[in-house]
Automatic annotation (TrEMBL):
Organism ancestry: Bacteria, Pseudomonadati, Bacteroidota, Flavobacteriia, Flavobacteriales
Protein name: GIY-YIG nuclease family protein
Superkingdom to which the source organism belongs: Bacteria
SUPFAM superfamilies: GIY-YIG endonuclease
Length: 111
């Protein structure tokens, strides 16, 4: 059995998918765009905030309440590849990537 320290070290070595994603309302095609170095965790955070009724984006929360969870999807728009052996902070690259995605969408149907 692994020690607690070994488990923590193993977790730190894990690589999570990072990039830009959208939460899409399939009823009205509005989208909420975000980015994260760990997209799954960030999606779970958004989902829990929406379920508890305290998401920071009030328009998204209102639509979630109105249409229900079943009318929303999580979609990866662009994934950032991790450079092997690098211990880099990718936040700047993720923000730039999100800006590019937002420019492509041209603010249509955004929350």
């Amino acid at each position: 059995m692994m020690t607690r320290k070994e488990l923590k070290d193993q977790y730190k070595q894990m690589k999570f998918p990072m990039g830009v994603f959208q939460i899409k309302n399939i009823s009205n095609n509005r989208v909420f765009i975000d980015n994260s170095p760990d997209m799954e965790s960030k999606w779970n955070r958004h989902k829990m905030e929406l379920k508890f009724g305290n998401h920071r984006n009030k328009d998204l929360q209102a639509d979630w309440n109105r249409y229900g969870e079943e009318n929303f999807t999580f979609e990866v728009l662009s994934e950032l590849k991790i450079e092997e052996g690098e211990n880099t902070n990718y936040n700047s690259e993720l923000n730039t990537l999100q800006d590019i995605v937002l420019q492509e969408l041209d603010n249509r149907n955004l929350y």
